[in-house]
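2024-03-11 09:14:02 DEBUG pipeline.ingest accepted 1 chain
2024-03-11 09:14:02 DEBUG pipeline.ingest length=95
2024-03-11 09:14:03 DEBUG pipeline.predict start
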Amino acid sequence: MNPKERTEYLDEDIFKKAEISVRITSIFIGSYEIKRHLAFRDYLLFHPEVKKRYGQLKEKLVDKFPYDIESYISGKEQLVKEIEVKALEWYKGEE
């Protein structure tokens, strides 16, 4: 299959069409980066209204920028930062 072909993929709870891409991230156990990722994930799990808002924004951006990952990422950056600040503060109380 040509990697430039559109294919269906699962992103959270939605199916959309997008180009195939791979992202590999290396993080060290105990690092700030892993704490940030886990805090964000867990915050969304315990705050369904925030998860819904985030998911709706992602759906809107996928529709608007189906082939432009940079614009997609840029479009969610502000909300991600807002959630991240709250998530890290919340996560401190959960440790």
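2024-03-11 09:14:41 DEBUG pipeline.report The CA atoms of residues 32 and 73 lie 21 Å apart.
2024-03-11 09:14:41 DEBUG pipeline.predict end
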